[in-house]
Amino acid sequence: MTTYTKKRILSGMRPTGKLHLGHWTGALENWVRLQDTYSNFHLIADYHALTTNPDTSDLERNTIDMVIDWLAGGIDPTRSPIFRQSQVKEHAELFLLFSMLITKARLERTPAVKDQVRDLHIESIVYGHLGYPVLQAADILLYKGEVVPVGEDQLSHIEITREIARRFNNQYGQVFPEPEPLLTSFARLPGLDGMERKMSKSLNNAILLSDPPETVDQKLRRAVTDPAKVRRNDPGHPDICLVFKYHQKFNPTEIEDIRSGCESGDLGCVDCKKRCAATINEFLSPFHERRAMYVSDTGRVMDILRDGEKRAAAEARKTMDEVHRVMKLG
Ligand code: TRP
Question: Which of 21, 114, 141, 239 has its CA 20 to 30 A from that of 195?
Answer without folding.
Answer: 114
